[in-house]
């Protein structure tokens, strides 16, 4: 299973994520986020991951071409994660312009929201299901909020699950749905934006335990 550790900001935590088993590392380019990294620092972190053959994901929110140009120049990502309100036509445009795989985040609360899948399944290379942001949150993702995973029980495909995953609940999530990948951020932090190496290790230990059960 793919596992993406998102919102990394130091060489140490990039190394811990990779040593623990991450397939993907994510860098957040959204100034309102406590996990925001500037292109030059992200470039150094991304190089570290690429040297270890780990996929680098740039997380953006309704970014314009100028911002995407700068991110791609700085970190040469393997994938773009679009975590805003990007519509299908914009995803087509981004794919045409950059030739990179795109993962589109879809916010879910209840089964009615699954209709969004049809809208994006053909245009995005991968879908990522996240919880809807709480009212008033400045962030469209990275809120540490979960949703009812059972609505995904019959959803086919190689999608990523995210939204409030943690060492404590990832086993339960894997019992009720069948993602191709897991994406986690805020529950692995000791403070907003500060990843905790022990929490990263604990997340992978919990996945291994669930897979062995
Ligand atoms: O992590 C952020 O700060 C962030 C900001 C803007 C868009 C997306 C962001 N993170 C993504 O949110 C989900 C869920 O994170 P969490 O585990 O609930 O904290 C994940 O896909 C991150 O890539």
Automatic annotation (TrEMBL):
Stored PANTHER family: N-(5'-PHOSPHORIBOSYL)ANTHRANILATE ISOMERASE (PTHR42894:SF1)
Coiled-coil regions listed in the entry: none
Superkingdom as given in the UniProt entry: Bacteria
Any single Pfam family the record assigns to this protein: PRAI
GO terms, molecular function: phosphoribosylanthranilate isomerase activity
Gene: trpF
Broad class of enzyme this protein falls into: isomerase
InterPro entries for this protein: Aldolase_TIM, PRAI_dom, RibuloseP-bd_barrel, TrpF_fam
Family: Belongs to the TrpF family.
Record key words, sorted: Amino-acid biosynthesis, Aromatic amino acid biosynthesis, Isomerase, Tryptophan biosynthesis
Gene3D superfamilies: Aldolase class I
Keyword Protein transport: no
Keyword match Transferase: no
Identification of the protein by name: N-(5'-phosphoribosyl)anthranilate isomerase
Positions of the N-(5'phosphoribosyl) anthranilate isomerase (PRAI) domain: 3-205
Catalytic activities: N-(5-phospho-beta-D-ribosyl)anthranilate = 1-(2-carboxyphenylamino)-1-deoxy-D-ribulose 5-phosphate
EC number, as in UniProt: 5.3.1.24
GO BP terms, alphabetized: L-tryptophan biosynthetic process
Pathway, per record: Amino-acid biosynthesis; L-tryptophan biosynthesis; L-tryptophan from chorismate: step 3/5
């Amino acid at each position: 299973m793919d596992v993406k550790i998102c919102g990394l900001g130091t060489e140490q935590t990039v190394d811990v994520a990779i040593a623990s088993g991450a397939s993907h590392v994510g860098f957040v380019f959204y100034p309102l986020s406590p996990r925001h990294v500037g292109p030059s620092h992200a470039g150094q972190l991304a190089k570290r991951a690429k040297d270890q053959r780990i996929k680098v994901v740039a997380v953006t929110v309704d970014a314009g071409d100028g911002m995407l140009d700068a991110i791609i120049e700085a970190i040469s990502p393997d994938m773009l994660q679009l975590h805003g309100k990007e519509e299908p036509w914009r995803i087509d445009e981004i794919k045409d312009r950059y030739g990179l795989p795109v993962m589109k985040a879809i916010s879910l609360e209840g089964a009615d929201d699954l209709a969004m899948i049809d809208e994006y399944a053909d245009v995005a290379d991968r879908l990522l299901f996240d919880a809807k942001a709480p009212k008033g949150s400045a962030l469209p993702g990275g809120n540490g909020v979960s949703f009812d995973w059972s609505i995904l029980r019959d959803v086919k495909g190689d999608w990523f699950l995210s939204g409030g995953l943690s060492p404590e609940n990832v086993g339960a999530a894997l019992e009720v749905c069948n993602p191709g990948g897991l994406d986690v951020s805020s529950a692995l932090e000791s403070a907003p934006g500060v990843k905790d190496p022990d929490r990263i290790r604990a997340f992978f230990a919990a996945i291994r335990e669930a897979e062995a059960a």
